[in-house]
Amino acid sequence: MKQRIAIVGLGLIGGSLARRLVNAGCEVVAWNHNDRPYETAEADGIRCVPTLAVLADAKPDVLVLCNPLKAMPQILGALKPLIDPSVTTLTDVGSVKEMVREQVRAVGLEHCYVGAHPMAGNELSGWESSDPTLYDGALWAITVDENTEYQRFRAVATMIVDHCANRLIVLDDTTHDRCAALISHMPHVISTAMINELVANPNRNIAAALAAGSWRDMTRVALTDPNRTRAMVEEDAANVEALLRNMANRLTLMANVLHGMAAQQGAPTAGDDKEMARFFVQGQPFREYKALTKEPDFAEHCETIELAIPETGWQQMLLESARRGEHIVRFDGYRQAMAQVRSSV
C-alpha cells in the first residue's frame, strides 16, 4: 500500500523527494513558504496547498520537514496544534539531528518524531534544481533515541526503502552529527578555504586557468550558496571545530616535514621520511574500499545479512549493524530486514 506523504519545503531536497515519491506512486501533498513552485509541481503530480493547516488536514502517514533548519522552530510551532500524531509520523531531512530533536521536544512532538538525513544533494538549490534522480542510490541515516516507537521508525523506513528505493542505516543523534561533520560539514570548510586561498593569491588568474580535475573535485561543494554552507557549519559547530583542529594538526605536521626537506634540499631525515610515508599510506583502507565500490557489480557481491529486529533494544541493535557497515536494503516482514555490507573500511 502506497503511503500519503506530506512535504514542507519544495527546494532542492524537498522538491526532488516529492517528485521521486510521486514517480513511485505515492500521494504527495506539499506546502512551500511561497507558491512559486506550485504550477510546475502540480504538473508533476504534487498536490500543493496554501497553508500548513491544509497540509496537516490531509492526515499524511509521514510528514517530512524539508525547510531550512533556521525555520524549524517556527514551522514546528505552527504544526503543533495541527498535526494528528495518531496518524502522522514526523520526520525531517536536516544535516544535524541533535538540534532538531531538541526543537521537536521543545514543542512536545517528540513522541511522533523520527530523524532522517538523506545523503543526497549537490551545490545547487531551489525547486528549479530539483530532480528525482538526485536520490538514485542514496543512503539515508535514520536517527532514533531510546523512546522512539518502532512503528514510527517503520513508517519512515517504508518511505525510504519501498518508495524511494534507497538504503538506510539507523543511528543515534550524536553519532550522526559527528559523522556528518566528518564527511560533509568539515569538508565544506576545507573546500571553501581552498577557493579563498586562490582568490587571495596574486597569481589567481593563472591558477584558475590551470585548474583541472583535482581542483574541480575538491572545490565543488565550495560553489554552494555560502549562506547555506555557513548555516550548516554553525549548526554543528562543536563537531566541526574538533575536526578542523585535527586537520590543522595533520597539515602542520606535513608542513613541518616539508620544511625540513626543503632545508635539506629534498633529502629527508629518517624521521621525516617515516612521517611522510605514514601520511600517504594511512588512508589506504579507504582507497581500497572506494576501489571496490566502483566495480560495476559491487552491490551484487556484497554480503547479505538477515536482521531479526527485537522488540526491545532494537535501536542499539541497528546502531551496531550500521557500525559493521551494514545497510538495510529491504524489509521482508515487520521485524525482518535484509542488509548488505556496503561500507566496511
Explain what the structure shows.
The protein has 345 residues and is α/β, with parallel strands linked by helices. The protein has three domains: 4-171, Rossmann fold (3-Layer(aba) Sandwich), CATH 3.40.50.720; 177-282, 6-phosphogluconate dehydrogenase C-terminal fold (Orthogonal Bundle); 286-345, no CATH class. Helices cover 49% and strands 15% of the residues. A five-stranded parallel beta sheet has the order 3-2-1-4-5. Helix 4 (72-79) links the parallel strand 4 and strand 5 (89-92). The longest helix is centred in the middle third of the chain and has 28 residues, at 173-200. The two termini are 37 Å apart. Pfam families: PDH_C, PDH_N.
What is the topology?
Elements: E1 4-8, H1 12-23, E2 27-31, H2 38-43, E3 47-48, H3 52-57, E4 62-65, H4 72-79, E5 89-92, H5 98-106, E6 115-118, E7 139-143, H6 150-163, E8 167-171, H7 173-200, H8 204-210, H9 213-219, H10 226-235, H11 237-263, H12 270-281, H13 284-293, H14 298-301, E9 304-308, H15 314-323, E10 326-333, E11 336-341
Parallel strand pairs: 1-2, 1-4, 2-3, 4-5, 7-8
Antiparallel strand pairs: 6-7, 9-11, 10-11
Helix pairs in contact: 7-11, 11-12
